[in-house]
Design goal:
By secondary structure, this protein is mainly beta. 3% of the residues lie in helices and 44% in strands.
Length: 593
């Protein structure tokens, strides 16, 4: 692991745009790699969760973090496809939660600055956060495993307990990641540092002879805020969970003025003039990153970048970046190749062009390309995954599959919600009704059968069965939501825009939603994924097979504040033989050809 050179902490007050921190000063750290060891023929690892001090920049004092095995991000766990692994996630965390939570009025843009600013009107400590114990549960995001191993949000444990999880790894090569998933406090626990990458390897990936070793690196992108010394104004290194609020309105998710890659603010990486492979993960609470590779004039050079994989594994062929850059939502992963050979002796930057930055520093990190020509045996292949199959109704996607309908919306108070929908014959009147004029199936009327996590479970899917999830974002404005479905990898079938008729005050559509227009999928969106962006006024349909595990799982928005504030719902996967005997309110089983 690359060590950060320690330099004196910044003295005196700090001001924007970089708040006294030198950009690209520190080398990019590489998390250590853990490979399982066998015990009586069984691969096992124990990973302790511990409090640790770590500098997020060499000009900062150390920050106290909660970590996996003493590292932020946690160690990269590497496994072989089909090789079962058991992990004991051991909670050994001492001390209080290492962050201070503050809220400030949205009109003052509190997220754009460090410091508590409690002397300013409208700023206050968020009561109760300082009292939170180390109550943790680990979710291996993207894993196909039984529900008992999945990190059910209520099943968190306190210090001195261990979560024993079994991961079958019966999945092709793909980048998973692990993070805390404790009910109602995921945003705080992940913010303290509880996240890391998990890579599955297989023979198909090996045969490609992709850049590896020192030329295959994780890039785990996050954002944070930091407190300041009230006397001097200097950054202290104390994690600050600072977010805006609207009086009597919805909670607005956290974002911060400091961007980190692999746990360091604005690092640099020395590279040879060769191809490199980067395993990119957005582990931020809510921030979207629209990434461009730019030269020293901040001109994009994205033609040197190719995407070869997404959340759920390798793409069929390399894909170029979209014209405006690659938008990566929280929890999304991308397998990225960059050809540095054409930039000998130059400095490049990974830069965020997302329009939601709000004046925050757009640079993430710098690549420093060696000036010497280097022999590189790797050449970009025309095809990547030969096992990939595009899902098509009636052939690779069987006609006999389940349909699940979900609505994303803003409720009468303006809070984002996620509704389970059940199809009914006619509009019964009242709230909680969504009508859709489906271009392929005529008028569909749905009623809401669950809106909070602890409401009655409404979605039941037969084990090893395909299900098409129809996610309709009916809000008139509001945020885009990265929707994550546990247990499965899916493919996007289509993305359609529409003009919504949802009335927020009455919490129902006033007329059937119609006027759908197809929005072309990006080439990489045809890949296997487990998290997908759903924008306001869009209907996104995805199809996945629900095998590899049974029990009760979760689906949710992966903006962690939204998840904690209620945008998370359960679903059950059970054997079809059992389903015949299972009585549940409202049915909840959706079989359509």
């Amino acid at each position: 692991m690359t060590e950060i050179i320690e330099r004196p902490a910044t003295a005196g007050p700090v001001t924007g745009p970089n708040w006294g921190l030198t950009k690209f000063l520190d080398p990019l750290p590489i998390p250590p790699v853990l490979r399982p060891h066998s015990w009586w023929g069984q691969d096992m690892i124990t990973i302790p969760m511990v409090a640790k001090q770590q500098r997020l920049h060499s000009q900062l004092p150390p920050s106290t973090l909660w970590t996996y095995a003493g590292h932020f991000p946690g160690p990269t766990i590497e496994v072989r496809s089909g090789k079962q692994l058991r992990i004991s996630w051991s909670n050994e965390i001492d001390g209080e939660i290492p962050l201070v939570a503050v809220q400030g009025p949205v009109t003052d843009a509190p997220t754009s600055r460090p410091g508590r600013e409690l002397a300013k009107p409208g700023y206050s400590i968020v009561e109760g956060v300082a009292d939170l114990p180390a109550w943790t549960v680990v979710h291996l995001h993207g894993a196909r495993t039984n529900a008992g191993n999945d990190g059910w949000a209520h099943n968190a444990g306190l210090k001195g307990t261990s979560q024993l999880a079994e991961y079958q790894n019966r999945q092709p090569a793909m980048p998973l990641w692990y993070h805390d998933h404790a009910m109602a406090i995921t945003r705080f626990n992940v913010h303290t540092g509880l996240a890391g990458m998990y890579l599955i390897r297989d023979d198909e990936e090996d045969a490609l002879d992709l850049p590896h070793g020192d030329r295959e690196l994780p890039l785990i992108i996050t954002d944070r805020n930091l407190d300041t010394d009230p006397a001097t104004g200097a950054l202290t290194g104390q994690l600050l969970f600072k977010f805006p609020y609207v009086p009597n309105g919805p909670m607005i998710p956290f974002s911060g003025p400091f961007s980190l890659v692999n746990g360091v603010i604005w690092p640099h990486l020395d590279v040879d003039a060769k191809w490199y492979r980067f395993r990119l993960l957005n582990a931020a609470n809510s921030r979207f990153f629209t990434l461009n590779l730019v030269d020293e004039n901040n001109t994009p050079v994205n033609d040197a970048v190719r995407l070869i994989g997404t959340d759920g594994g390798l793409l069929p062929a390399p894909a170029a970046l979209p014209a405006g850059g690659l938008t990566v939502a929280p929890a999304e992963r991308f397998d990225v190749l960059i050809d540095f050979s054409r930039f000998k002796g130059q400095k490049l930057k990974l830069r965020n062009a997302d329009p939601r930055l709000g004046g925050i520093e757009p640079d993430l990190m710098e690549f420093r390309v060696d000036g010497r020509a280097k022999h590189d045996s790797f050449t970009l292949p025309e095809k990547v995954s030969t096992s990939y199959t595009r899902l098509v109704h009636g052939s690779t996607l069987p006609e006999d599959h389940d349909h699940v309908w979900i609505a994303l919306l803003l409720n009468a108070e303006g809070h984002p919600e996620m509704w389970d929908l059940e199809q009914v014959d006619a509009d019964p009147g009242g709230e909680g009704i969504i009508q859709v004029q489906d271009p392929a199936g005529g008028l569909k009327t749905f009623r809401m059968i669950g809106r909070l996590f602890d409401d009655t479970t409404g979605i039941f899917i037969d084990h090893d069965r395909w299900a098409v999830w129809n996610i309709v974002h009916v809000a008139n404005g509001g945020p885009a939501h990265p929707v994550h479905i546990h247990l499965t990898e899916f493919q996007a079938l289509f993305r359609r825009s529409f003009t919504t008729t949802f009335d927020q005050a009455s919490e129902r559509t006033t007329a059937p939603i119609s006027g759908f227009t197809d929005v072309p999928l990006e080439k990489y969106e045809e890949g296997w994924k487990d998290t997908i962006i759903v924008n306001p006024g869009q209907w996104v349909s995805v199809a996945g097979k629900f095998g590899g595990g049974t029990g009760e799982f979760m689906y949710h928005c992966h903006i962690l504040d939204h998840e904690d504030e209620g945008m998370m719902r359960p679903f059950v996967v059970h054997p079809p033989e059992v389903a015949k005997f299972h009585v549940h309110p409202g049915g909840g089983h959706h079989h359509e050809g």
